[in-house]
Amino acid sequence: xxxxxxxxxxxxxxxxxxxxxxxGWLALAASYYLVLPLFGVLSMVTxxxxxxxxxxxxxxxxxxxxxxVWHGAVRLAVVVSLLAALTGAALWTLGLPQRTPxxxxxxxxxxxxxxxxxxxxxxxxxxxxxPWRLRFLSVDGRAHHRCGSTDPQTGRKxxxxxxxxxxxxxxxxxxxxxYYPTRPGPDASILTAEGDIGEPVGEFGAGWWLVG
Length: 212
Prior knowledge:
Elements (H helix, E strand, L loop, with lengths): L6 H33 L4 H27 L3 H21 L6 H7 L1 H12 L6 E3 L12 E6 L11 E9 L6 E6 L10 E4 L2 E3 L1 E6 L2 E4 L1
Antiparallel strand pairs: 1-2, 2-3, 3-4, 4-8, 5-6, 7-8
Helix pairs in contact: 1-2, 1-3, 2-3
């Protein structure tokens, strides 16, 4: 059995564990809000980093509590365990950032509505840099005016404002948000990657569709 540590050592040990836990949660938040937008694709690098951060915030409190108990700091171990549990419960209640298209649309419904209004007014055309609140939604931080092929029978061409949300590392497939001023036809399509043409597969409302 390890020798009990002094109160001063226990105090220092507690604050060291607290700092490590805070750094873990900050790293986890950064992996969602900085790393994914920076890389732009959900690659092995980004998901590996997120997995490591989750292991950090889950495993570190368990190891820290066990080590504190080993050194006779049972009360501090209980405090560390309670803090970790309360932090996890708070994040569970608030909800971690949803990386699903549906979650992202709900979170930014107002910003996307304003972007659509600018598009209808002609203030957004071609390739346009997105407002900072929406910039991380798109792989390249831009909105694109894209049109599908022309229907040979009706001569109709469905055009939309397109935000590329995700693209695989080989640029062979992708998904995105598309705003159609008028309801897209059954043959509507948008180039989502160099090797992929997507079509509207889910309607969010207010003219916005998921294209994949």
